[in-house]
Amino acid sequence: MRLRRPSTLVLSALLPATLALAACGSSDDNAQLKGFDAVSVSGAAGEAPKLDWKGQMASGKQQEKVIHEGDGAAVAKGDRVIVNFVVGDGWTKKTVIDSYGPDAGGFVTEVGAKAQPQQVTDLLTLPITDEIKAGMKLGTRLAVTVDSKDVIGQYLGDASVSSYMSQHDIGNEDGLVIVADLVSVVPAAPDGKPTNVSPAWAPKVVEKKGAPTALDFSGVAKPDPKGKLEVATLLQGTGAPVEAGDVIAANYLGQLYDAKKPFDESYSRGTPLSAVISEDFGTVVKGWSKALEGVKVGSRVLIKIPPKLGYGDQAQGKDIPANSTLYFVVDVLAAG
């Protein structure tokens, strides 16, 4: 769900009744505790944290702590880091988001940069991104407790935010705990070895200073819109394979058959795309998720995506007509 700034910054009628009432009332069976007095965190880094609740988390001032320090390399300002996380709701005492499993993805953040939310889940991770500092080591686990109303902030009246919070049973006055692990730093380029693969369907990658700038379709037959998904590995990485539910950091270039220039690319921007790979809840077209699952980190792949796994009969502006076959070169830089 993409964010839009509401015209008013007050809790409006857009909030469903179940959301507005979720944190109301009291319970004789649950003590009202603030911050880390209400919850403890256990479990090994790299695995989903276990949240042990001592009572219901009452509203209170944000608290932060490092659960344990990692033994990996120290991150530097400007590094882009993959982060896995869980969100626990202090009223229901349930884990409402878990990126360690196959049903949700983590996120990528730039150390020292002011994060700007682009989608609803970013609101829940902002308190953690603010606590990731230069000098922290990979493998570090840190946690934040915060009130949901402070997390939502100026987007209280946004219908997509209200719907998302309701779906995850998060009330507008609930205490939340967010626990995160620093997984890996995103490298600048893939480190895979050339495979010398050159299938007939695949265009040639035009490069400048090692970065793709276009695709050359000379000698390549016009694609059949009813064709199948094709994947060719140009550089074979040695990292772990991408799994369903992973968040990846990737550079990419996309172009249509015989087009004069790409319709989109990330290489010149200097900022890799972060995307969740999943056919069910991924943040990219299904063709990407199907093609990249199983690809090893450090690889460069060429992908040919038929319309049924791309945008189908829906045009995407002037650059991508309906029923287009999409061609991509993708560098898988990191995954977690």
UniProtKB/TrEMBL annotation:
Q: Which GO terms fall under molecular function for this chain's record?
A: peptidyl-prolyl cis-trans isomerase activity
Does Signal appear among the keywords? Answer: yes
Enzyme Commission number(s) from the entry: 5.2.1.8
Q: Does the keyword Signal apply?
A: yes
Catalyzed reactions per annotation: [protein]-peptidylproline (omega=180) = [protein]-peptidylproline (omega=0)
Q: Where do the TM regions start and end? A: none
The record's keywords, sorted A to Z, are: Isomerase, Rotamase, Signal
Which Gene3D superfamilies has this protein been placed in? 3.10.50.40
- Signal peptide positions (record): 1-22
Q: Which residues form the PPIase FKBP-type domain?
A: 245-336
- InterPro entries, per the entry: PPIase_dom_sf, PPIase_FKBP_dom
Main enzyme class:
isomerase
Q: Which family does it belong to?
A: Belongs to the FKBP-type PPIase family.
What's this protein's name? peptidylprolyl isomerase
Q: What organism does this protein naturally occur in?
A: Nocardioides ginsengisoli
